[in-house]
Amino acid sequence: MYGKGLRALGISTIVVMAVALGLVFFWVPLEADQGFLQKIFYVHVPLAIVSLCGFVAGGIFAIQHLRTREQKWDFRSYVAIHMSLIFGVATLITGSIWAKGSWGHWWEWDEPTLVSFLIVFLLYATYQPLRFAIEDPERQSRYASVFAVTAGAFVPLNFIAVRASTQFLHPRVLGATSNLPWQMSLTFVISLVGMTLLFTTLCKYELTVKHTRAQLRALRRLAERRAGARTSATPPSRGRSAAPSLHATAMTAHPPSTHPERSR
Question: What is the CATH number of the domain that holds 122?
Answer without folding.
Answer: 1.20.120
